[in-house]
Amino acid sequence: MNEETVFQWPMLLFILAALLYFELMRRLDKYWANRSPLSDEERLWNHARNQAISEYEVFKRAAATWTLNPEIAHADFNAYLKEGILPHYVRDYLRKLKTL
Q1: 3-class SS string, 40-96
Q2: What is the chain's mean pLDDT, rounded?
Q3: pTM of the model
């Protein structure tokens, strides 16, 4: 019953093949993630998380850059939650952030 484990080459090959597969998938995932641009909604979410603020705060900041009232930002944010459409001034704000 106490047989020693016998080293066999196929075991090593399977382990190496699995490691190579996972490394290849990791690199391909990185490559494809860098190639596909973020949507405006993803950019909004990323900016809010990076700045540790809410999406509503991003709407207010974007409205301030266009000298719009905070009430307009509030109404547009509620419309965004219901319809999922970003107003033009928020899109412009996010695109300008990308170039900075």
Answers
A1: HHHHHHHHHHHHCCCHHHHHHHHHHHCCCCHHHHHHHHHHHHHHCCCCHHHHHHHHH
A2: 89
A3: 0.65
